[in-house]
Amino acid sequence: MRFIVVRHAQSEWNERGLLQGQRESGVSARGLAQNEALLDALEGYRIDAVLSSPATRALSTAHAVAQHHAAPLRIDSRLHEQHLGEFQGMMIQDVLRLHPQSGGALLAGDIDAVPAHGESARQAGERLYHALLDYAQALPGETACAVTHGNTLAALLWRLHGAKLADPFSRYSPANGSFSLIEVHNGELSVLSWGHATHLLAAGCL
């Protein structure tokens, strides 16, 4: 089985530099353009099913892909963004100013940094990892598009690339509207390629 794993299109909070976590935010004008560019980029792929985080910004992308490919859509909370606890809704600079230690660790890409009342990126990546394995069993031989979020996807890619603990997971954070290809073989996930964004560059919405 193959997964086309997409980071949702840019949201209004992405544009403003606010940390979203599991809070809601609408899609920006750039995000709408990214959705259109993504549909063009995925034109040559067979997509049998679409999986999505329940967040509005993810569903915007997921609905567009599902409609374009006439594929069923499933919503799964395991694809949601990392829960950023008390940092949700804060500007990045305010997180660093008010929480220099815990906020600094998170923004520096510490895979195990846990915001108060939140979860680590590692925990979010594990959610996504096990969700994909479950779908690989439920949808054998199919190609599914999974729409998720920046930190959650970066943590999964960090794990699949065999990164060391000292390596920041944020190094693997893909652009909004980009996609990565992940294959499942013998119950193991492997990355075929990641961070495809040439469609965004060509459309002027990277």
TrEMBL record:
<dbReference type="GO" id="GO:0016791">
    <property type="term" value="F:phosphatase activity"/>
</dbReference>
<protein>
    <recommendedName>
        <fullName>Phosphoglycerate mutase</fullName>
    </recommendedName>
</protein>
<feature type="binding site">
    <location>
        <position position="57"/>
    </location>
    <ligand>
        <name>substrate</name>
    </ligand>
</feature>
<feature type="active site" description="Proton donor/acceptor">
    <location>
        <position position="81"/>
    </location>
</feature>
<feature type="active site" description="Tele-phosphohistidine intermediate">
    <location>
        <position position="8"/>
    </location>
</feature>
<dbReference type="InterPro" id="IPR013078">
    <property type="entry name" value="His_Pase_superF_clade-1"/>
</dbReference>
<dbReference type="Pfam" id="PF00300">
    <property type="entry name" value="His_Phos_1"/>
</dbReference>
<dbReference type="GO" id="GO:0005737">
    <property type="term" value="C:cytoplasm"/>
</dbReference>
<dbReference type="InterPro" id="IPR029033">
    <property type="entry name" value="His_PPase_superfam"/>
</dbReference>
<dbReference type="InterPro" id="IPR050275">
    <property type="entry name" value="PGM_Phosphatase"/>
</dbReference>
<feature type="binding site">
    <location>
        <begin position="7"/>
        <end position="14"/>
    </location>
    <ligand>
        <name>substrate</name>
    </ligand>
</feature>
